[in-house]
Amino acid sequence: MSNQIQSNQPPKKRGWCFCAGCLLTPVISILCLASAYFFGPPLASWLGIFGDEAKEVYQYAPNQAASQSLTETFNELGITGVRVYVLPIKGQPTRGAFIILDASAGYQGLDPLDTKDDMLLLILQDITRRNRHENLRLAHVTVDYRDEFGETATAFTADQELVEEYADGLITQKGFFAQIEIDLIGTLQYLGIDGMLEEIQQ
Amino acid sequence: MKTATKKMILLLILALPVLFLSGCDDVDWDLLEIAFESWAEENGLLENGNWKPDGVVVKAVEDKVAEITNENTAVQLDGLNAVRDMEKATQLADEALLDLDTAKMASAVSLRPHDWTLQEKDAAVWAAHGNNAAAQAAFDRSDDLLLESLTNGGDCVELRYQQLKKRRDTLLDAAKICQKDPNCSDTEVEWLWAYYTTASGMASDLFISRTTVFCPDN
């Protein structure tokens, strides 16, 4: 009987607050996640939890003499379309060398004169020699391969210590390559598979 | 779905060396193939000659985490974006100097506010507009940034010499541009030549003496 009475009663209306809550909860959650993604890392960097971002680390002007010296390495070997920037590293007494192999600026490979020499070894030996004799204080060598449109196709980085081990013959070429760091995500993004990357990252 | 994704990744890895064709000769080809294989073996993407698609996923996730937490190697690679900003800022600043355009120069400086070379160009453009206070402020800012970049060591005298040479050359360019520009007055051209003469003299003195009061420990 009481059940019957209850079923005849009109359903209790839920307030607009309830509906707004249903809508706002996911929106706020998404906003929180987005904020954490975009503002979390800079905040963590600011608090000293993470390291500084690259934009801050390499904020100072390139050292003109050091950049010119390393560019000479390539000029002397007849390699065109290469620019080298040696940037001070903020908070460190060292510098980073950025080598841009730019097909849009005329880069045609490491051995355009077809000398059959081990050009990579020659380049790294010359960089090592200049680093020691001219006190360039290099911490790393980072290489950027740019295509005919100036877009980065791939990039890799190696600590100067590793470069010098290879240049001095302490490790093999294979050993050197095994320890460099290739920009996997950047290279995959160049292929235009952002969607797939998102799937991987999930 | 998962299998399809894995197959796709596998295909991409195998197709990766094709990327390196553009702008590369045979030496680069061989080298990059060895580089990629050695690197893939070390990072678990390749085992006994067999590709491991799972390894790509793991490595991509590791790299993303390294990027977010600003790990050393990730920052080094991301430094290439700082280099792009620098190239863009330098190009903008060069255009601004040619046009004696203060607004364009401000855009260049905003891209790399801690780069003293841009401040030098900014100073030259302000001088060409007859605003000596703004020019002097830019020179002062350039000096401050140079000293700031030396906080953790470096050859102050050498860097100061580089700066003075840059100042001299930039002012020379600005003076020549201003002379041809109908909007530049004779006074502005004279000011630029005066700045140039001062910078040139300072650079020559430093080249000979290798000492300067600019460097605190000198």
Number of domains of chain B: 2
Report the sheet with the most strands of chain A, covering strand number, pairing sense and barrel closure. Answer: 5 strands, mixed
Count of alpha/pi helices of chain A: 9
Weakly predicted, low-confidence segments of chain B: 1-5, 17-22
Mean pLDDT over the residues of chain A: 84
Low-confidence stretches of chain A: none
Gyration radius of chain B, to the nearest Å? 25 Å
Strand order of the largest sheet of chain B: 1-2
Oligomeric status: heterodimer
How do the strands and helices of this protein lay out in sequence?
The complex is a heterodimer of chains A (202) and B (218).
Chain A: H1 2-8, H2 16-46, H3 54-57, H4 64-76, E1 82-88, E2 95-102, H5 119-133, E3 138-146, E4 152-159, H6 160-167, H7 173-179, E5 181-182, H8 184-190, H9 194-201
Parallel strand pairs in A: 2-3
Antiparallel strand pairs in A: 1-2, 3-4, 4-5
Chain B: H1 2-19, H2 26-42, E1 46-47, E2 50-51, H3 53-68, H4 72-99, H5 102-111, H6 116-128, H7 132-149, H8 156-180, H9 186-209
Antiparallel strand pairs in B: 1-2
Helix pairs in contact in B: 4-5, 4-6, 5-6, 6-7, 6-8, 8-9
